[in-house]
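Following up on my earlier thread - several people asked me to post the actual chain instead of describing it. Fair enough. Here it is, all 434 residues.
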Amino acid sequence: MDTTICLLLVVAAMVLAVWQVPKHTAVSPIDEYVYIDYLAKVPTQFVVQRGEDTGQYARLYLSCHGVRAIGLYPQSMCTDWQPSDVDRMPQAGKTTADIYTPLYFAATWLMAQPLRLVGVEDLTTAGRLAGWTWLAAAAVLLYLSLRRLRVHPVVAGGLGLLLVGSLPAYWSNTYVSTDATALLAGSLMLFGVTMLLRPGAGRGARWLFVLFALLVTLAKMQNLMAVVAAAMVLVILAAGAAFRRERGRRLHTFVRDHRVHTAVLAFLVALAGQAAWLVIRNAIALESGAYEGAPSPLTATALLRETFKFFPGVSVGALDPEDVGVAAIVASTVMTWVIVAGVLGLLAVARRGSTDEALALSSFVVALLAAPFLALASTVLSGYYVDLVARYGMSLLPFFLACAGVLFTRSIWTRSLAPAVGVLSYGAMLSLTG
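Reply from S.P.:
Thanks for posting it. Predicted structure:
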């Protein structure tokens, strides 16, 4: 049964991409223009540099297609593009994608090549279609993780379909976007946790967990949230085990616990990977980068607003669902209910010291603290504060759904609720246009 459900989730991810990508007549407003530029440059230069001009391919694509929810450029820019038109390009024609390693773009370019061989001539279309692979992997890993957490297969399958049929998946996996790595990052780190929780998990599993942390953070810095959530599950479990020892041995037991060592090492290796990329990025920079965003003061009110940015804000995707349509409102509302009920419900009923409690507590705490810490860090590093967007927390979504899965599997009627909400949300995503 598990194999059948995994195959169905793969098919669902593929159908979403094949059905929706041809409907995309414009560029996604979440930086797809610079991502298309990076993708086009993979075979010639592999990496883009800070201060680099976007290439002719991306500029013409933007000129001819416009930006969804924003508008079109003059027709003359598509039919007779002139060098002077660069002033109308975002950031005066400079890239802002230099903050990313080539990992996502190189992988997507490679996955797009078989599609081009079978008749998909346009690179952007092929890159968008390749997004189903990231989504399928995320859904399958989420399902396998839930099964390891003893979630009923119907519940696990329903929540896997909910992930595929979500607004975050729609915006990230049917357009060219580095956010395509976020859902996979969360599912992979969750899978890593369940791998370590299995009886007999040895040193190899621990090193795999550390490798997962490095890879997902190199794909996108915001994916570090999933690493922290996974690491915190291990730390909470180790702390619970240490607390059950006699008073004089608690600290010693906690410090020597291999789960603590693995969690700390994974976090440090992930940070080291990003630090190494920062050094490389600065070394190859052409000039100071293009500025993007509207700065505002980092006040206590702003930090409080950021605290509630990801929980349950990740459900909305890239744009306000009201600006997208009724189907987007339905999908966002359903996901919001599942997130809140899953995390808070599990936190309320989980047995003290259990894996369920550690999962719910980690998901909740990281969701509340990640955005304020990210806002503070970006302010310190860049010198200004820009209001964060909810999609930065997408890598936490698999953890939220895992909480819902563990909770919903406890009751017969909630077991049937999971596939119902999955089918409802997936159908809503198929009905979106644009």
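The chain has a mean pLDDT of 92. That should answer part of your original question.
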